[in-house]
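Query structure, 340 tokens:
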């Protein structure tokens, strides 16, 4: 829970975290090293100096470190795991459904464990999606349209098999489709993260929610024009919000455009942990004010009520979380500060 200087409480849901294994032992080839090194470059270039990790820690961190950084120090009342496969780069994949689930069991009511799928897995993958829904009770999935699979270096949500998988999600009650549509990561292809296929998918599946992670950067304008038409499209602030530190004017432009085109009910906070720690992101965001000229041009309002929506209320609505009831459940939840 974050408390403002005025004593106001803000219920925080970090809607984009990961527990990954990018270690040398798990790297399948040079691409595994390229990928995690690119992540690390984002981490060290956009983080405050005091929050930069040693690279060895960044490659593979413990579940205890995650709990400490996200829940204990990081103000998050809840957090949502968004795992991806990347099995062409990592022997055991980049994320681990069972490791996420273990933390959710250890800390009840704290974590939501989403999953993933790859439509190039065909019929077998559809069956696996159904099995995983039954096993893990997924409410959402995180999709990486630029992930490699055999000879393929990406797919689109407008592809026939993608639509079959989205139909299956609708059938299974997996309503929240988080899609990476942001900056490229070495060695993935930039064009495979293009935001254009969101338009077709959102139109074809109005009963699914499409959360465009990283708000389409560097294609913010394309994203905004799509999202203003498709009311089931949301923007996830991971990757955008760290710019509040290194490029505050640029972040002001991004958030004001989102508020202008989407409105404050369709923007979600996400730290993209462990690329960035939520503590400093939330502190800076709560204290952030739009420059007067930008505010006048866009009419954007970023007052405390809007920030409260972005930091937790919007994600709570998508995941059917009653915040007052959740506060009561968490009241006796003990989280020890760890020395890590």
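Result returned for the query:
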């Amino acid at each position: 829970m974050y408390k403002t200087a005025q004593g106001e409480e803000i219920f925080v849901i970090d809607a984009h975290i990961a527990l990954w294994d990018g270690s040398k032992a798990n790297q399948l080839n040079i691409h595994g090293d390229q990928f995690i090194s690119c992540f690390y470059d984002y981490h060290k270039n956009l983080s405050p100096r005091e929050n930069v990790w040693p690279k060895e820690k960044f490659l593979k961190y413990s579940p205890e470190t995650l709990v400490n950084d996200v829940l204990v120090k990081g103000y998050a009342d809840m957090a949502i795991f968004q795992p991806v496969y990347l099995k062409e780069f990592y022997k055991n994949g980049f994320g681990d459904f069972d490791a996420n689930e273990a933390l959710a069991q250890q800390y009840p009511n704290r974590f939501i464990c989403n999953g993933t799928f790859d439509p190039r897995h065909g019929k077998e993958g559809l069956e696996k999606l159904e099995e995983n829904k039954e096993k893990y009770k997924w409410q959402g999935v995180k999709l990486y349209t630029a992930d490699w699979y055999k000879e393929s270096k990406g797919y689109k949500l407008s592809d026939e098999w993608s639509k079959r998988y989205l139909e299956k999600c609708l059938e299974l009650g997996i309503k929240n489709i988080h899609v990476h549509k942001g900056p490229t990561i070495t060695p993935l292809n930039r064009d495979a993260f293009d935001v254009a296929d969101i338009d077709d998918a959102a139109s074809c599946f109005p009963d699914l929610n499409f959360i465009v992670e990283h708000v389409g950067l560097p294609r913010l304008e394309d994203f905004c024009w799509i999202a203003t038409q498709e009311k089931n499209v949301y923007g996830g602030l991971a990757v955008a919000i760290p710019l509040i530190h290194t490029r505050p004017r640029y972040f002001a432009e991004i958030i004001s455009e989102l508020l202008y085109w989407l409105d404050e009910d369709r923007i979600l906070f996400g730290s993209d942990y462990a690329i960035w720690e939520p503590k400093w992101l939330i502190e800076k965001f709560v204290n952030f004010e739009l420059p007067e000229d930008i505010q006048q041009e866009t009419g954007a309002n970023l007052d405390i009520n809007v920030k409260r929506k972005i930091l937790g209320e919007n994600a709570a609505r998508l995941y059917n979380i009653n915040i007052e009831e959740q506060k009561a459940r968490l009241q006796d939840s003990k989280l020890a500060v760890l020395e890590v």
